[in-house]
Every structure is written in C-alpha cells, then in structure tokens.
Hints:
The complex is a heterodimer.
Chain A: H1 3-11, H2 13-46, H3 48-51, E1 54-56, E2 59-60, H4 62-99
Chain B: H1 2-21, H2 35-58, H3 62-67, H4 74-85, H5 88-101, H6 104-113, H7 115-130, H8 135-139, H9 145-179, H10 183-231, H11 236-246, H12 263-276, H13 281-284, H14 293-324, H15 346-395, H16 402-426, H17 432-456, H18 462-482, H19 484-488, H20 504-520, H21 525-532, H22 534-543
Amino acid sequence: MATDLVSRVKNDPNYIELEKKRNSLGVTLAVLMLVIYFAFILLVAFFKPLLATPVYGVVTLAFPVGLFVIVSAIGITGFYVSRANSEFDTLTKKIVEAAR
Amino acid sequence: MNRLFILLMAFLLNVGTAFAAGEGIEATSKQATNPIAIAMFVAFVLLTLAVTYWAAKKTKSASDFYTAGGGITGFQNGLAIAGDYMSAASFLGISALVFTNGFDGLIYSVGFLVGWPIIITLMAERLRNLGRFTFADVISYRLQQTPLRVLAASGTLVVVLFYLIAQMVGAGQLIKLLFGIDYIYAEFIVGALMILYVTFGGMLATTWVQIIKACLLLGGATLMAVLVLAHYGFDPIALFTDAVKVSPKHEAIMVPGSFVANPVNTISLGIALMFGTAGLPHILMRFFTVSNAKEARKSVFFATGFIGYFYILTFIIGFGAITLVATNPAYIDPITKGLIGGANMPAIWLADAVGGSLLQGFIAAVAFATILAVVSGLTLAGASAVSHDLYASVFRRGRVDSASEMRVSKMTTVALGIMAIVLGIAFEKQNIAFMVGLAFAIAASANFPVLLLSVVWKKLTTRGATIGGFAGLLAALILTVLSPAIWVDVIHNKAAIFPYSAPALFSMPLGFFFCWLFSVTDKSERAAIDINGFEAQYIRSQTGIGASGASSH
C-alpha cells in the first residue's frame, strides 16, 4: 500500500471511528465470552453442590447454566455480526470510497 | 522443520509399537454386514464422486485448488465450517461422553463452541482482508517470509496429523463395525477416497463434500433427537428422569462430576479448545474461500449456530442412549459388558433403537461420510502448507507457476493420504476424542499467539514470532509426551512427569511470552522493517483496502 494512501486513510475521521468502535466492541465481546466460559468452568470445578441444586424434577441448576453458555456464544457472535454488517460496513464503504 | 518432522514421526511410530505390544485395551469387534448402511454409504460416495468430477473441471489454478476460486457464499461456508468442526469425534465421541458421564459431556462440548466468538471478534475479518490461501499469508504479511512460513507449515502439519489420527481411528472402528471388514482395509478405503476428492476436486470438491455431509449429519442428528423426545412424549424432563432411574450412576449424571476432578486440567483443556479453534489451519483456510469480509463474518455466525445446535442434539442423543441403549441387552457385549462395537458407539445403537436398521444404516453412513469429509479438509490444509508455504514461498521464493504449485499439492495430498493410513493403523486403540484435544492444544500454543500478535501488536518482529511460535509448539508437544496419557499409558512409566493431560494452560502463555520477549529485545534491521510494515497492514486488515476478491489474486 502506498505511503500517501496509508496516511490518507489513517487521518480519515471515518477510519478513526471505525477502528475505535470495532476494536472496543471486539475486545469487549471477546472478554465477555472468556468471563462467561471460565466462570462456568470455575463453577463446575468449585461449586458443585450449588450446581447440583434441583430446579425442576431431576434437572439441576447445572443444565440452565450450561445452556446459557451455549446460547451466549451464539448470541455474542450474532451481535457482533449484526453490528459489523450494518454500522461497520457502512463506515468501511465510506473509507474505501474516500481512499479511491 | 525436517528434523522436527522426523522426530515426530519417530515418536508416532514408537507409540504405534507400544500399542502393538499393549494389552487389554478395548477394541471394536467385527460385525455382520449391514446392507442398508452399505447401500447408503455407496450412494454418498457416488454423489461425492460426481461432485468431485464436476469440481475437477472447474479447478484450474492454484487459487481454485486452495480457495475454490473464492466463490463460496457465507451460508455455504458456514455449513462447511460447521462440517469441518462436527467431526466423527464430536458426534460419536461427545455423545459417548454424555452416555458415560451425563452432564460432564456438556462441559466438554461447550469448550468447542466458545472459540467462535473469539474468532469472529478478533480474527475472521482480518484474516480475510490479509490472506490469500493459508494463515501463513497473514503472519508473513509484514514479517520475513521464510521463517514464518516454516513455522506456519510446522504448526499446520502437526495439528493436521494429530487431528487426522483421531479421524482415521474413528473411521477404522466404524467401518469394521458396519461392513464387517478388517480395520486395515477400512483405513485404505478412507485414505483412497480422501485422496480422490482432494487431488481432483481441490477446495471446491472438499467444500461441497463437507456441505453435503453437514446437511446429512444435522438432519440425521435432529431426527434422532426428535425420535428420542417423541419416545418421552416430547417431555425432556421425562427423558432425564428415566435416565436418572436407569443409569448405574443415578443422580450423578445430572451434575458436574469427575470430568473436572482436576480444575487445572479442565481450565487447561478449556484454553486449548477456546483459543485452539482460532488456530486450526483447516478452519482458518475456509475464510479465504468467501469473496469478502462480510461473507467471512456471516459464515462464522452460521457455523456457530449450527455447531451450538448440534451439541444440544448430541446431549439429547447421549441421554437417549442411557435410557434406550444401555438398558437393552441386544446392544451389550455379553463378555465385556460394554457396548457392542466399543465405547464410541452409543449414537449408532441409539439410531437402531429409535429408528430401526434403516435409521441405523443412515446414521452409520453419515458418520462415515463425516470422517471422509473432515479428513479431506485436513489433508487439503496440510497439502497447502507444504505446497503454498514450503514449496512455492520458501523453496521457490514465490517464483513458481500455478500449475507446478498445484502438482506439488496433489503429490503432498497423496503422501498425506498414505501417512494417514499408516498412522490410523498405528493408533488403532487410542481414544479418539482425546487426540482432538491434543491438536487443539498445539493450535492454541503455536498458531494462535503468532496469528493474533501479528495482526494486533505493532512491535512483533520476525525473531519474536518465530521463537515464540516454535516455543509454543514444542512446549505443547513435549508436555503432552510427559503427560499421563503418553508417559504412563503408552510408554508405561510409573508416574507422569507433567501431571496434567492438557498442556495449553502452560504452553500458550509460554508462546505469547517468548513472542513478546524476543520481539522487544530485537534491535535488528529486520525488526525495523517488521515494525514499519505494521501500519499499512493494520489499515488493510481493518478496511480491506488492497484486498480484492480471492478469485482475482
């Protein structure tokens, strides 16, 4: 990539906005997933009696907790993709147009 | 690289000998042939060979071979990624884990899912914007080609080999069970078909084989889960209640149990699964088959949805097997008191229990198709590492035409196919779900740190990346050899030197630390070039400027 193109894109306010928004969303969601998953693992490792609490018949608290981790993984992915496909792609399009 | 490879081979062959001399490990027994399963499998093979024939006519350049010309849609790629991920180890292994341990099986499968948000938020778009054929394109974008390509190829080949072993062993057991033919011949059937798909049809055939299989597997597993639930009047509580009643472990199957007996082990495995996903070469390669970053994103979302849904199905299937398979003497081996055909068979027998021999034949054929599709994807990734990274980029320094690069890929595919057969035979009695864990640990420790740092950390230098990547790779390998699974169970020492079965908790941070240490202390001229190259790479990774469709490269 040519140096003048790099500096032009770098100073494009749309680029600055895109970079800031996407990076903070990406890092936030990645950390959220990490926290949810490892909280689950720690629960499973150290709070077995708590997870063994019956919630409905033979079904224990471990089940809804496990299901929540699965659903949250799909939800986090879906949330990022929907933001990226609308907001980030609009910004990217503007940046690419301006860089032409 | 060569020396590493020879060492690895020596290690693998040793393990093989140890197995040959091993005692009392459960093996599957040969079964009477199942004509329905055979007919369905033959139908699948004919269909996929037709796809391969069609794909072969369209596969003309190296770009076609590696990335299917970049023309796969996000939805198709999502199915193919899910297909790569829903291996026989997942389907048979995880439903078997649920069958044996109840809720603990879910803990294991959840780990395979949580890597996807990491991929979408940190990796997918950047990969698509920076790479062409393999993830080595990304890490060598601003860093020096030769060392990074060699590193990526080593990481790829080691991961691919471990993953392949798991798949080949599963294939052999399954075919022996279904077709009543020897394990060794089963290995040859899988190896030969996989070589056909990949050498003639390249990525296009591999992707479509994967898509067909993903649809069959999702459809078949859904049908099984529905039939299990129908047996209980669509009341999952009734299923769980019955499972608690009939299981020899009773209430213990409803709570976390022995799977997390050792928290360090579980966290270590969790790290491997979570970050290893973002370092699996055959998955990363799929991001280059779509036309742009938007399609790459969509494919991750579809893949995550399909995979999450699939694990919920395997959970129901596992519990269904507790109530409907374990209680039926027809499925129990009178001598071993275990399941006929071995520990990985609950899903296959459940199909028979809920849908008769027709469904059993279908599920068995699908499981076999699954293995074929996954080994094809793995082999393609391994062949690309050799032909694109080692041959074209390192050995020929990029001065090579598309035709000879493709010829090398095809030769490598044949070599990998033969190697897969040999390793499949050598590892006949290893637990297949466990081997996949090893592949993930290596992907998390060698590939992931270098890949992530190269796209987000300006100061990563060639020296840091090379040393860090190899340190992570070797640490994961060595710790695995010293772990109970190999040091005690295979080499028959009394106590393991490394007490945990999952190394990633230690080897991944080590990889990151070495990347950092040998980058910040790197004052060479090359380091200055590496750091200067970051800005342009970063802008391209964010915006895609300069990254046209994969097909136009």
